[in-house]
Design a protein that fits this description.
elongated; 5 domains; Glutaredoxin; single chain; 25 helices
Length: about 700
């Protein structure tokens, strides 16, 4: 066992038991005067240490062992009173140093050897300690304990609420619960510990008078002293003994009052007093003025009052000057921070709503070799590209696309990137910096030298080529893009495919708030009188899932207001909204062309599907699996033929089965648009290019 381990065992392991054994021993074993000097000095030092600890504690729980310290200090003081009483009564006839030098000093120096003065001083100290400090601290402890216990259920519920909302984690919640429990235990213990201090004050009074009567009687009866001699010896020693015990008791009571009256803050007592009492120079100016007026009154101690007024006024002036300087420094720091933020702020900061969610729904993580692409200081242009993507998609989709949070991730491959939606990876890829991606669109006229790869967005064959081969690749029919465009395109495709996941209640409210500026009555009657927020949100999400823009919010709101009283079913409302948006849906498919090429179903197949729906377009549970597979294969061939011809793939069906087929082929045929007859405007002609289930 080394010296440090031995020291820890002696101090931490055996220190407290040895002190308690020592205190108990003083009640039984007579002590020599020099031992009393040591223990009285230690008692005073302990009281001062406790007081300083209480002053510098930031909150009561920082001194949670304080109630136990009060008990131990009180026991020590009472044990010293018993030990000193024994020595005084046995040896008091021999002179003033019979009970040690400490008691003698307090009996002679502090009270000048006058037992009458000593008695008065002792009574004043007892009154201050017992009536003022101890009683007040006890009341505060009692009330604090009661209020703390009453507030425990509310604090526990607040912790659970913060945990459920994600503001804190499990470890912090556990720590806060422990603090709440410890706080209740602490104030409960302090309520009891205050009784120790109160009882100690009462015991001090009783011990004083018992010692005076006993010493006076013993001196005259056993040692033949006169009344004056007995009073001079025993009473002065007794008062000295009382003072040497009462002063540490007063210090400990003061520490108790400081602890129970503190409010938890991140500052010690001195900082709190200075910041809260002397932070405003106006108070000091007023105080200095009043003291100065008193100083000029005849008969007053003019010099003392005027000197103090000058000191207070000087302090007020210094505080005012310091406050002004701190204000200037704060303004300069604020300007510097704003300038630094302006220099380092991302380019897309100016794009956003004031009430956009603080959560980052979209995240782009890059490997360390791709950091120059997103660092504008190093010439990276990806941030500008992403800003352009957001602007374009916001116009197309009809709502503001969330900002993209860009950060590095050392867990990724050096050249890799990952796109996350709500913290979940939805796309990834690997790039070659300082290279270009040559994508094979399906028909090229030669081979390229480079590193074969796949386009991360659409999975098309591609080749990484050097900068000098761009022109050659384009001449062969390849689509050549740089690395920033690869990521921007991938991000754009993910946002477009997951647009419904990015639309929330906040975005819907913003859309309606903007609509309210032009159609206030419409919005006022719509939400929540006619339809709930959640229904509107679901309808808009349904539209986005099927690639329909929601930028025409007026038309959408008018149809919801008209049809919501009949049904609150989001799917049914989506159908009537699509009918009203048919013109814009077809416009997005074929532009201004008057003819719409469509794929149709054989009438018999369409009738079978209508029967399978059974009044619920959302299920289709009765559809035979083999039939569904045949339809899927036929539609794949038809869609491919439309792509070859450069036409959009549109399946035109009856309104009752449109939703069923849209959900059925949404993932297997993402390029297929399912329209109902009612969604095609009257001014558009239809050209059938394929028939599924019949002759094409």
């Amino acid at each position: 066992m080394n010296s440090e381990t031995l020291r820890d065992v002696l101090i931490k392991g055996a220190g407290a038991p040895l002190m308690l054994v020592m205190i108990m021993s003083m009640l039984i074993i007579p002590l020599a005067p020099w031992a009393l000097d040591i223990f009285f000095t230690f008692n005073i030092a302990l009281a001062l240490i406790v007081l300083m600890t209480a002053v510098y504690a930031l909150r009561p729980l920082d001194f949670s062992v304080f109630p136990t310290i009060i008990l131990i200090a009180t026991l020590m003081r009472l044990a010293l009173n018993v030990a000193s009483t024994r020595v005084i009564l046995m040896e008091g006839h021999s002179g003033g140093d019979a009970a040690g030098n400490v008691i003698e000093a307090f009996g002679n120096f502090v009270i000048g050897g006058n037992f009458a003065v000593g008695l008065v001083v002792f009574m004043i100290l007892v009154i201050i300690n017992f009536v003022v400090i101890t009683k007040g601290a006890g009341r505060v402890s009692e009330v604090s304990a009661r209020f703390t216990l009453d507030a425990m259920p509310g604090k526990q519920m607040a912790i659970d609420a913060d945990l459920n909302s994600g503001l804190i984690d499990q470890d912090e919640a556990r720590q806060r619960r422990t603090d709440v429990s410890m706080e209740a235990d602490f104030y409960g213990s302090m309520d009891g510990a205050s009784k120790f201090v109160r009882g100690d004050a009462i015991a001090g009074i009783l011990i004083l008078f018992i010692n005076i009567v006993g010493g006076f009687a013993i001196g005259m009866a056993q040692h033949g002293l006169s009344a004056g001699e007995a009073a001079e010896n025993y009473i002065i020693l007794t008062i000295g003994d009382g003072l040497v015990a009462q002063i540490p008791a007063l210090v400990l009571s003061t520490a108790t009052a400081i602890v129970v009256t503190r409010v938890s803050k991140t500052a010690d007592l001195g900082d709190q007093i200075f910041s809260e009492m002397f932070s405003k120079p106006q108070t000091l100016w007023v105080a200095a003025g009043i003291i100065g007026l008193l100083g000029i009154i005849p008969g007053m101690p003019n010099m003392a009052f005027l000197t103090l007024a000058a000191i207070i006024a000087g302090a007020a002036y210094m505080i005012k000057q310091r406050g002004a300087q701190e204000k200037v420094n704060a303004q300069a720091a604020s300007v510097a921070e704003e300038q630094a933020a302006a220099m380092e702020a991302p380019v897309e900061k100016d794009v956003g709503w004031d009430d956009v969610e603080s959560v980052e729904p979209l995240t782009l993580e890059v490997g360390y070799r791709l950091i120059p692409m997103v660092d504008m200081k190093q010439g990276g242009e990806l941030v500008d590209r992403i800003k352009g993507v957001r602007r374009k998609l916001s116009k197309e989709l009809g709502f503001l696309v969330h900002a993209v949070h860009i950060k590095d991730n050392l867990d990724l491959a050096p050249n890799g990137y990952q796109i996350k939606l709500m913290g979940v990876p939805v796309g990834e890829g690997e790039l070659m910096p300082d290279h270009y991606m040559a994508i094979n669109p399906g028909q090229v006229f030669g081979e390229l030298e480079g590193t074969a790869t796949k386009d991360p967005t659409f999975g098309m064959d591609a080749i990484w080529i050097a900068d000098e081969h761009q022109d050659h690749a384009q001449s062969l029919g390849y689509t050549v893009v740089d690395t920033s465009t690869v990521i921007a395109t991938h991000l754009s495709d993910i946002v477009r495919n997951h647009a419904s996941d990015l639309l929330g209640v906040d975005e819907v409210k913003e859309l309606l708030d903007r609509l309210e500026e032009s159609a206030p009555k419409l919005v006022e009657d719509l939400v929540p009188k006619t339809v709930e927020w959640v229904v509107i949100l679901k309808v808009l999400q349904n539209l986005l899932d099927e690639g329909v823009s929601i930028k025409d919010m007026r038309t959408i709101a008018e149809n919801l207001a008209e049809n919501a009283p009949k049904s609150q079913d989001p799917d049914a409302l989506t159908m009537v909204v699509r009918n009203s948006l048919g013109r814009s849906i077809v416009q997005d498919l074929v532009g201004i062309a008057g003819e719409l090429p469509v794929i149709t179903l054989d009438p018999q197949l369409e009738q079978i599907l209508q029967q399978s729906v059974q009044g619920d377009a959302a299920t289709g549970a009765a559809l035979e699996p083999g039939l569904a597979e045949q339809m899927n294969q036929s539609l794949i061939e038809a869609v491919q033929q439309q792509e070859v011809e450069g036409n959009p793939a549109v399946l035109l069906v009856a309104p009752t089965i449109r939703l069923l087929l849209s959900k059925m082929f949404r993932h297997s045929l993402p390029d297929l648009t399912v329209l109902s007859y009612s969604e095609v405007p009257d001014d558009r002609s239809i050209r059938m290019v394929a028939n599924v289930g019949g002759n094409s």
